[in-house]
Every structure is written in C-alpha cells, then in structure tokens.
Amino acid sequence: xxxxxxxxxxxxxxxxxxxxxxxxxxxxxxxxxxxxxxxxxxxxxxxxxxxxxxxxxxxxxxxxxxxxxxxxxxxxxxxxxxxxxxxxxxxxxxxxxxxxxxxxxxxxxxxxxxxxxxxxxxxxxxxxxxxxxxxxxxxxxxxxxxxxxxxxxxxxxxxxxxxxxxxxxxxxxxxxxxxxxxxxxxxxxxxxxxxxxxxxxxxxxxxxxxxxxxxxxxxxxxxxxxxxxxxxxxxxxxxxxxxxxxxxxxxxxxxxxxxxxxxxxxxxxxxxxxxxxxxxxxxxxxxxxxxxxxxxxxxxxxxxxxxxxxxxxxxxxxxxxxxxxxxxxxxxxxxxxxxxxxxxxxxxxxxxxxxxxxxxxxxxxxxxxxxxxxxxxxxxxxxxxxxxxxxxxxxxxxxxxxxxxxxxxxxxxxxxxxxxxxxxxxxxxxxxxxxxxxxxxxxxxxxxxxxxxxxxxxxxxxxxxxxxxxxxxxxxxxxxxxxxxxxxxxxxxxxxxxxxxxxxxxxxxxxxxxxxxxxxxxxxxxxxxxxxxxxxxxxxxxxxxxxxxxxxxxxxxxxxxxxxxxxxxxxxxxxxxxxxxxxxxxxxxxxxxxxxxxxxxxxxxxxxxxxxxxxxxxxxxxxxxxxxxxxxxxxxxxxxxxxxxxxxxxxxxxxxxxxxxxxxxxxxxxxxxxxxxxxxxxxxxxxxxxxxxxxxxxxxxxxxxxxxxxxxxxxxxxxxxxxxxx
Amino acid sequence: xxxxxxxxxxxxxxxxxxxxxxxxxxxxxxxxxxxxxxxxxxxxxxxxxxxxxxxxxxxxxxxxxxxxxxxxxxxxxxxxxxxxxxxxxxxxxxxxxxxxxxxxxxxxxxxxxxxxxxxxxxxxxxxxxxxxxxxxxxxxxxxxxxxxxxxxxxxxxxxxxxxxxxxxxxxxxxxxxxxxxxxxxxxxxxxxxxxxxxxxxxxxxxxxxxxxxxxxxxxxxxxxxxxxxxxxxxxxxxxxxxxxxxxxxxxxxxxxxxxxxxxxxxxxxxxxxxxxxxxxxxxxxxxxxxxxxxxxxxxxxxxxxxxxxxxxxxxxxxxxxxxxxxxxxxxxxxxxxxxxxxxxxxxxxxxxxxxxxxxxxxxxxxxxxxxxxxxxxxxxxxxxxxxxxxxxxxxxxxxxxxxxxxxxxxxxxxxxxxxxxxxxxxxxxxxxxxxxxxxxxxxxxxxxxxxxxxxxxxxxxxxxxx
Lengths: 726, 466
Fold this sequence. Notes:
The complex is a heterodimer of chains A (726) and B (466). Chain A has 726 residues and is of the alpha+beta class. Helices cover 60% and strands 14% of the residues of chain A. The two termini of chain B are 46 Å apart. In chain B, a hairpin with a 2-residue loop joins strand 4 (144-145) and strand 5 (148-149). With 466 residues, chain B is of the alpha/beta class.
C-alpha cells in the first residue's frame, strides 16, 4: 500500500508539471506572435508614417511658405505704395513736426497703421532724418522731446550702413514687458521690423519708416501647423524673424546647410525641409518632430503590453481556478496512469513467468505501443546485505532510470527485474551497464548499500524473457553462493563460457536437488516445473533435450545414492524403466508425472524412512562394502577392510538392525539379483555367476528361499507387470 | 485670472435675471416637470461651461430657479455675425437672445418687425417682478422702440466717469484739498506740469493724461454745465455743441493745451495707451473711467512705485469723480436681453402670474442696479475709493435725454458718423488752437447743413411724440 501511494504521487507531480508546461506553451504561443506582430506593425507603421510625414511636411511647408510669402508681399506692396504717396513725400519735406496740422498727421497715421492690410502690423515709427522729427502710432515728437535719444541714434547709425531700400530686422524684446506701448517721447524699435528708407535726390538718407510686424498675425495663421507638431523657423539671412521653438533653431539650420528648396532631410527625430527666397534673402525652415508619433505609438504599445500582462495574469488566475474544477479529471487521469502502470507491470511479470506466448507478446506491444527492439538483456537486482521491501526500492527508482528500462521494472523472485532493450547488441550491453551504474548510485544514495546484479545473455525475443529471468536468477544464486564482495555484477555469459553447454540451468537444478534431498516435495515440484518449462522454452529438442532430461534424472538418482546403499531398495521390480526414458524425453506431461510420481515421491519417502532409522556410521560402511563386493564377502573380510573386530561388527549389526551379517549379505545379493533380472537380459546362470555363485542351483535355492519365486518366475512377473501397468 | 473668473461670474449671474423672467414664468405652465428655456449668450472665453466651478454655478442656478436652461454660448468676436444669422432662422430662435453694446439701428429694425416682446406691461407688474419693476426709467428709455421696451438691460455703472489724480504728486506740489471747481483742476494740472512733481529736476511731466480718445473732453464739458450730447431746454432738444457752456469748456481745454498741461501730440496718441502715462509717471491726472485711476493705483502697489511725498509709502491715487458737481453719465447699460416672439411662442411663456415666488428678487443682479456686495476686490482700498467715487458720480451724473431717440432716428442712422466726425474734428482743432472761434462756428454751421438740422428736427419730433 505504501508503495502504491508513493507511486501515486509521482504521476501527479508529473501531471502538474506537464500541465504547467502546456500552459506556459499556450501563453508563449499567444504572446510571442503578438509581440512579433507588434514589432512588425511598429516598424511598418513607422516606415509608412515617415514617408507620409515627409510628404505632408513638403505639402505643409509649401502652404506655410505661401502664408509667409503672402504676408511679406502684401506688406511690401502696401508700404511701397505708402512711401510713394505724395503725402509721404510731403512729410519728408516738412521741416517741423506737423503739430499745426493735426488732421494731416492723423491722415498719415491712418496710412502708416496699415489701412487695407489691417492686422499685419503692430505699430510704426517714421523718422524724418533731415528735419529731425518722429511720428509713431504713439505720438509725434521732435528730436529734442525724445526721452531716449540714444536708442534712435544707435538705431539710425546701424541702419545707415545698409544701402538697400527695404530691410528686415529683428530687434528682439526692446520694450519692458509691463509697458506694452511707449509713453510720451519714447520710441519702440522692438520686434521684427520692416524698414523702408527714402533718399533725397542727392542720395542722402531722408527718412526711415520702421514697421513693426504683428507676429501674432503670422502665429495665428500657422497655429494649426504648430499644433500639429510642425516647427517653423523664418529667417532673414542670419536673423531669426520668427520661430516656434528656439530650442530647435540650430537643429533646423544645421540640417539644411547646402540644401535646395524642397529637400526633406532627417535630423535627429526631426524631418526638416526648407524654402529659400533668394530675392528677399529669406529662408523658411520647417521641421516635424517624428518622435511625437513615436511617443504616441509607444504609449499605445505600452498599453498593449499592460493589456497583455493583465491577460497573462488573468490566465494564471483562471488556471488556478480551473485546476480546482479539473481535479476529478486529473484524478481520472491519475487512475488511468496507475492502471497503465499496472498493466505494464503485469505484462513484464507475465513475460518473466513465461505465461504469454510470442503471439500475445506482439499483440500487447502493438496495443500499448511499447517500443520494439531486436535485442534485449534481462537484469535482476538485489540489494546486498539489506533486508528492504523491494516494493519500496522499486517505487523509489528515479524516473531517468525507469526511462532507460524497457516497459517497466518489476519485482520478480525477490529481485527487481529489468528488461533492457536496444537496436544493437553492444547498445544493449552499454545500456545495461548504464542502468546498473545508475541503480548502484541510487542504492548507495538512498539505502547506503551496494547491489547484486545478475544479467542474462542477450536474447532476441521477448517470449524468451522467462529463460532470461532464470539465467539472471542463476547468476544471482551463484553470486550469493560465492559470497565474494568483489563482484556485485554477474553475467550469465561468463558461466556459460566456463561450463560449456552442460550447465544450462545449473542453479535451478541444484535448487531442485536440494529441495528433494531436504524432502520438500512442494518446492521440488515447483522447481521441476520451472526446469521443464525452461527446457520447453529453450526449444531444445532431440538429443539436446534428452541430454538435459537424462542429466536431471541421473542427478535425481544420485540423491538417494548418497544416503542409501542401493537404488534397488527404492525402486523395486524395475520401477525405473530406464529404457523407456526416451519416451519421456519427448512427452513433457509424462515426464513430469513420471518424475513426480515415480521418482521424487519414492526418493523422498525413502529418505524420510532413512532419516527416521538412520544407520550408524559403521553399519553404513559395512553395507557399502557389501554393496561394492556384490555380496561376496565374509564377516572377517569385511572387518579387515573396516579395521574392526568381526565380533564387534556382528554385535553392532545385531544391536542396531537385529540381523546377522549373513542376512545383510543375502539381502544385498537378492537386491542385486532382482536388479540384474529386471534390468538386464542376462541368463539365470550368468546372473548367478555375477553374484559369485559357483553353482546356479545354489542361487536358485537361495532366491527361492528369499522370495518364494524362482529367478525365472520373478523376471517373468516383472516383465508382465511392466507390459500391463496397473 | 481673478478678473477672468469675475467676468465669467458677472456674465453668469447677469444671465439669471433674464432667465428668471421667462423661465420661471414658464415653470408655472408645467408645474410638474422642470421647464426648459433656450438662451443664446455672449461668451468671453472658450470654456464658459467647462471651467472649474461652472457646473456648480449652473446646477445651483437651476436648482434655485427650477429651470433647465439650454445654453448657446457664442464667442464675443463672432457673436454679432452669428446673431444676425440666428435671427433670420425664426424656427430655431432661442427664447432669449443677448445683445451687446448699445441699441443699434439693426435691433431697432428687428423690433419694428415685431421680433421681440414688449416688456413694458410685465415690468409694470410690481408685485410679480419686484426687482425688475425697479428698472431705471432713463435707461429703459434708451431701450424703447416705438414705445415698446424691447429688452432687459444689463446695467452698467452710471457713474463710471470722473477725475482721478495722483495724490502724492498733489502733496508734493502743495495741494492737499481735492479740487472742487474747474479752476482748481487747472491749478492742479498746472502744478503737475511745471512744479516738477516727481522731483527729478526735469521738465518731463504733464498735468492731464490725454489720448486721441476724446471721451475725457465730454466729461470735462459737463463741469461747465453743458450736458450729455443733447440737452433739453424748454422742452426742446438741442445738441450740446450749440450751447455757450460748450464753448466755455472748449476754451478751458484750449488753455490747458496751450499752457502745455497735456501732451502736444495727444490727437496722435493711440487710445490703447490710456492710463500708461499715469502709471509710469508722465502725467498726474486723468479724466476718464474711474477704473483708470484704480488700475494705476494697483500698478503702484504691485510694482512698488514709491510716493514722492512720503518716504516709505507707495504712490496713490485720489479718486475725485465729479467737479463742479457734475460728471458724465454712462448709458447705464451694456447690452440687453431680448425675448423673441419666435422662441417664446405664447404670451403665457412670457407672462405668468406667480413668477415672484421663484425669487426674481434674489436672482437678478442687474436691476435695480449692479451689486458688488460679494466681490472680494471690494475689500481693497482702491475698490472702496472707486465705489465711493461711483456713488458721488451717480448723484452728479448728467444723462443724455436723447439716448432713446437716437437709435430710432433715420437721419442719425444715415449721417450720424459724419456728423459726429465734424464736431469731433472741430473740437480737436479748436483745442489744439488750429481754428478760432469763428471757424468753430463755421464748423457748427457745416454740421447743421450736413444733416444736423434734420437730426434735431427728427429727435425733437420723437421727443414730442412720447
């Protein structure tokens, strides 16, 4: 029971691990393709997105370029118109600020403030250089009234050097942040300015008009692009006029050195393109930050990953739950497994017992899909010196050893029997050695003892497993008998080589003889059957079989011979019928009955009788001498051989057996006579001669005295009896 | 930020009034379910109903009034355009539409087409609408078309206009008493200009801050008793520029200009800079909305502009308000809610007898008048001073007796802009000394010829009819 329970555990463990394995596989098969798909989609999406981004950037950059161009063109056209107006010329000529003509000044302000392009500009400053006065959207002053003359002077100084009529400059944040509009006498030259200059006929700089561009107008128009992730850098030469993000200005610039209008280049995470307006000296650079997309999809991927993790967690959770539900099924599986193991064990045990023929073996192998090998060896294993329940040892065998063993290891005749199969003989041998080593390691580790192993010869058919088992057993017996610790491993082949053909099943036979001589009829019968089975299984026929049978019978006859003097004492009236043994060799059934009925039982009966009235040493020696001399011996002669006084011998005989020496000689003579009469075809005269009678009449008289029959009558009766047995 | 929230609050609270007028009444016809009204209004920011607290206000409002409101918020910059489209589609017209600014010719036309309910009968029901019935008659006059009141006005402080000046400067130049008369003001401005009030030794200050926005002149003119655009003399409406007081005021202003008490280029100064000079110490006084003074004062506090008179103190503003017991009144409203006949189909929708129990008195903040009672700014010194000035201004306010007629006038509709420009330009030229009195009178004659005479006739006719 303990063994069973223990065996019950390990399949469960296996079941569980297999289950986990399956589950992991499932999760793996699900997640890995998903991940791969995600990566592929990611890259494909990006390639597509990048191309798309390029195209969109090109198209957008053109649109944005248009916005800038329109803005600039409108602005330029309008203010060129303004400075070509008569009133502007008039203003240039005015020697003083027109305080006396406020409506005129107002009209000029209206003109300068943008008029039809309202919203394009924030403010303006008109500087009359010749007559030193200023008109801006916030007032009108002569130079003397300016609070900060230096700003104007430095501004003009800077601008004088440029000879072009129109200039674009960026003065940055000129005004203080909390002062949005200039006060009295203050000028505002901050921000992006368009400068328009007029010259007198003499080529002298007459006036400068500084128009402050309303960048929020541009900002509003490019807001859409900016919010869509596009960066814009608008430059006049090296001056930045407008930028959406100062951080990437350098990046955009460096990316587009020596590039043509419309080229798209990748710089860092930015796609950059530009358009260059040679006539204005303007350049517009547009950038698109692709990392925006990347961020988005990365977020999406992270979400997907989180989802996947959730999914896996859910799966684990479900699995845990489901294992509870699956318990009955698992138990069923377990039972099935146990049954299968049971069948395997049964199968192997039956193989060992020789209870299934080769046809059935093939069927079994087919049915249970056991592997087919052309060659096998059998190995029996016992633990040396330890009295351990073999079931426990068997159950504890590690699974890697089990896997090496054919079908399954079983317990048979107090040993663990293992069949080891292989395609080649050497493979089988190697495998066997491996299993033995593994088993030895296991035994040492678990039980601290070494092994005793018997290995059969190589055999090719599983139906010969019984024979192989006997071989193993025999090896084990011999090993045990030798009682040497040197060799824990015995191979039947070795004995075979030593003894040749003769000793096919020495161990069984020896056991059999022992059983007989110890009067254990039951055991003797069992062993006999085994021996006979072996004979059958080894498919020995004809002379080979006869040899074994004769050897067995002779061996059997030798048993009482050691104990008792005359075989004829046991087998009266020609019971042995040695001439008919030939028939017995052929017929197994007859042989078995014969051996049991006519040999084992009488022998055992005799032996028991002998044991009950065991003769003393002297008596036996005397009887031996009588038997050797064929009864032709006197008391004196006998006493001489045995170195005893004849009178002592006679007295011992009388005391122990209540017979005289002569009686004993006669009894011996009679036995021999009977034996010769039954077993030979010698004539009565020849028999009497052999028995040492000088006169045949004396022999006949003697025989008649003893048996009330003449020798001839005796022989006749014995023969009749044999011809018609019972 | 606080300004924004406040304006939002103003707007929302303001709306309560009109909603209650229709909605609460509506509620009576279907007592069981919450009545619903539709309301189109001006949004000052994109996220009127999504700002923090907005939903709280709305739900509190709906709970309080028992009305569900279907709001339509339209941004202020496109409101006028949107409204004109909406008004054409009578089938989907909201019950209440909001108009910004003052009554315009377009609205008058709509009113004459019968688009709006005449609210006069409802406003007379004192028991039902205890608050709304207290509406200022003078302001309602401005919203009266052909004798019908077409909207509930969004009231605005009447006394917004007045004089503010820099207190520490005044102390520095030895003026401790608030000016009472125009002459006092002249003295103040003179000293601010020539007595170096900031003590920096430079001639860099002006008395009066002035931009091209001439509203300041309109206020100053009332000091001389010349009324608000139009004045009624013996039952006849005459434009103020035809009064002698007007010329007197102009002469005073011309003196200010000639004496350099305001910047010489004032007609060329961007009106957006109004208040800048007071803030950055270029000018010492401003005659405009009191808020200019308040803002400058706050600017001093926030930027630590130190007083020139007392060490360790920040500069401050003295908010005077009226001079000579007079100041200009505002129109008294800024926009109004009109109830459309297309939206509010039946008279029952508008008039319901039990309306009062839904707490119109509590819900209305514009009428009888705007209350600032709950505003935190109220606590500050500046706001207290401003509120006090408003109080004084309200009492001294000079109204425009023709405000209700002008939108109805066809002549004004056609020629109003031209006519105003003639007087505006002439006034500027006169103040700047570019024309003399004779030329001024010539300009007035031109005004009459260009259509001013016809306008006078029409307005007086409207006045007689009333």
